[in-house]
């Protein structure tokens, strides 16, 4: 029982952890409150859902979802950079448009994948055999995908292009003096971010085998909560990278929700719970910062 | 080298706050000159700098740099040839990135920011030697985030970064104004050294009359969008703070230091 609960927490924690890394890029690195995430997570589900339903390669579906999310992120970026729309509104616009788009992609408000459909879990199931290890097959596959996403992101943030991304949110003026267009860099950041969020959606699709047009609600708040838990709690552990902290943050978060649910919280109350937890984390964060007199410095 | 010709600029045009700052403003700066610009608040010094950098577009007129008309170019495009240090010490560096990362990113200016490693390990010793010249002990703190440095240290770092890849023109926007007197002098001495060594044409806006007297090859005083004093060479060398103050007092304005 406990084992199954923990496995469930880890499975969901790693899936949403991929999403949280995307939120980390916009919220912490770019300083861009991007609400597109509430639309790009179900976009990933939708793209993946249709590809799986049509019998296409489930791994390819992950890449396609990443590409679709990046494209949506590009639009958010263009709204902000080229059309000069305020950043918060840009995300809301993309999110709203995606609601219709996601519906059109699948053709229904909600649907299920048949049990015979091929997913990344069915293709790898044979490898884990029939024994006790089979219980862990999903979480291992999800873990590997999350680690690949994390390592690629870590690598990118250490490249020259990644350095520019890190400086644009910190100090746009510096990027201009380096003769680089800060707008282009912002768009790239939003593309990577929403690509990761969509990728998480695609993994979630194959994990849950279901599409629901409203399933994106609350994604961004969940992602932010994980980022803040990750940055606050895991900042002290020096040898860990921030991305690792963010994934851990999501696992902690999912654990809290699971415990609350098993303690009798009704599932329809989770969004309220999420909000309260989020505000609590923010306040703890504030308290910790004040206590340490760390000022306004941010971690990136 | 740099030419501002027939610049017109009116702020808040068509409102009760309408203010015509520049009407037919002209200025020419020769290759290798180090120009200090002084003047009261609202005299147009900073606006002039922003027109050169492309952060403010003039209503009409042209900005010519090295023989090319750069008026239609965006600020980040102009930055290919222009370096800049701002008044606010946090604007010249990236606070969350380390000193080493900051220097590496500045060292790559003019090249592609692609997918190769951001941190420049080959040039580590060069960075250390540059930091050593500051005498601030930063050479042993390459891994420290720039945000953890003092204002003076950050400004010194910003100056190294802005001139690491030699710009044709260096804009200094009251870059010592936010510092304490000692750091202010240190950064000013460093400025002079770098500008001389790399032979960079420099345009420096300052509130500090002493800096304008002691440094630079030419001094310009601005008032209400015009140049009311322009001295260079031997003539400038003979001027004392009192000479500037006299002119300043005539136009009854506050003065720095």
Which residue ranges of chain B are poorly predicted, with pLDDT under 50 across at least 5 consecutive positions?
253-257
- The residue fraction in helices of chain B comes out at 25-40%
Shape call of chain A = globular
Sheet-strand content of chain B, in percent, reads 15-25%
Mean pLDDT across every amino acid position of chain A = 91
| Alpha plus pi helix count of chain A | 12
Gyration radius of chain A, in Å: 19 Å
Give the beta-strand count of chain B: 10
SSE class of chain B:
alpha/beta
The SSE string of chain B, one letter per element, is EEEHEEHEHHHEHEHEEHH
Sheet of most strands of chain B: 6 strands, mixed
* Helix/strand/pairing category of chain A: mainly alpha
CATH superfamily of the largest domain in chain B: P-loop containing nucleotide triphosphate hydrolases
Count of helices of chain B? 9
Query: Into which percentage range does the β-strand content of chain A fall?
Result: under 5%
| End-to-end Cα distance of chain A | 38 Å
Strand order across the biggest sheet of chain A? 1-2
From the structure above, extract its key features.
heterodimer; A: 300 residues; mainly alpha; 12 helices; 74% helix; globular; disordered C terminus; B: 257 residues; alpha/beta; Rossmann fold; 4-stranded antiparallel β-sheet; 9 helices
Protein model, in words:
The complex is a heterodimer of chains A (300) and B (257). Chain A is 74% helix and 2% strand. By secondary structure, chain A is an all-alpha fold. Chain A has one domain (2-215). Chain A has a two-stranded antiparallel sheet with strand order 1-2. With 257 residues, chain B is of the alpha/beta class. Chain B folds into 2 domains: 2-93 and 151-250, P-loop containing nucleotide triphosphate hydrolases (Rossmann fold), CATH 3.40.50; 95-148, no CATH class. Helix content of chain B is 33%, strand content 24%. Chain B contains 9 helices and 10 strands. The two termini of chain B are 31 Å apart. Chains A and B meet through helix 7 and helix 8 of A and helix 2, strand 6 and helix 3 of B.
